[in-house]
Structures are given as structure tokens and as C-alpha cells.
Design a protein that fits this description.
single chain; 146 residues; mainly beta; 8-stranded antiparallel beta sheet; 2 helices
């Protein structure tokens, strides 16, 4: 979940809108995806539909696609253990002791893919600035599939 948005029960733009209020923008980014942004939260959720939306519909319609990924770049949204954008990098391990620094970012929650060759990937990760502050928290929701 991201705040009141619970993609496991309703992963649509309509549900995200109920949780966060009216989005600042909706931008079709491909035939399959739509980026929805809430400026006051500095939150972007990418909604995807791998099956097509049908004639007369847009990928950015309220119920046409499902939450696939998110990125937070502002301090108003935090992880389940209180990590926020802007905090010092040391807070990652204080808040998430099992986090690991891999491939230039903190893997906060990790899982294994069952698709293709498998392998681990971060479900939630954090990137840091050169000054050692959390710059963004990103995650994979996966409601639209792999």
C-alpha cells in the first residue's frame, strides 16, 4: 500500500484518486502506460494495461489500467518504517535493518522473480544524493502483471 491507496484491492487510477485527491497530471507515456502525478506529494504512479483498453478508451481512463510502479521524490510520503525523502542516508539502516546497498541504491524490500530466469529485484528501493540524503523512493507494485 501507499498511504490509503491499496492496489491489492483496487489498483486503478480511480482508487488512487480517492486516496490522494485529484492528480496534478495524467500523461500517456506509451500505448501501454500512463503516468499519474500528485505534485503536492511529489508522487508518480505508472499505470499499465498489457491487454489493451478497447475502442474509444484511453490508457489514462480511470479504470483502464492498473498500478505498476511508483516513485516518490518529496518528504510527505514515507515507508512503512518511516523513511522519507530528504533524510540522511544513515536512516535507511536505522529504519530498515535488512536493507542492502546494491547497484548504486538501497534495496529496502527485495523479492525473487518467478518470471524468466528469476533472480532477485527490489520491490522498494531508495536512491541517495552525493551529499548522502535520500533523493527518491521507488517501488514495483505489479498489479498489471509482469
Amino acid at each position: 500500500s501507499i498511504g490509503e491507496f491499496r492496489p491489492s484491492s483496487d489498483p486503478t487510477i480511480a482508487a488512487a484518486k480517492r486516496a490522494f485527491g485529484r492528480p496534478s497530471s495524467r500523461t500517456r507515456t506509451s500505448e501501454l502506460s500512463c503516468d499519474v502525478r500528485w505534485r503536492r506529494l511529489d508522487l508518480r504512479i505508472t499505470f499499465t494495461n498489457f491487454g489493451g483498453v478497447g475502442p474509444g478508451k484511453s490508457i489514462c481512463d480511470e479504470r483502464a489500467s492498473k498500478a505498476q510502479t511508483f516513485a516518490v521524490r518529496g518528504p510527505r510520503v514515507r515507508t512503512w518504517r518511516g523513511l522519507r525523502v530528504g533524510q540522511r542516508e544513515e536512516r535507511v539502516l536505522e529504519r530498515h535493518p535488512s536493507a542492502e546497498f546494491r547497484r548504486g541504491r538501497w534495496w529496502i524490500k527485495t523479492t525473487r522473480s518467478l518470471v524468466g530466469g528469476g533472480g532477485e529485484f527490489p520491490v522498494v528501493d531508495a536512491t541517495v544524493t552525493e551529499a548522502g540524503r535520500i533523493k527518491a523512493i521507488r517501488g514495483w507494485i505489479g498489479a498489471a502483471g509482469d
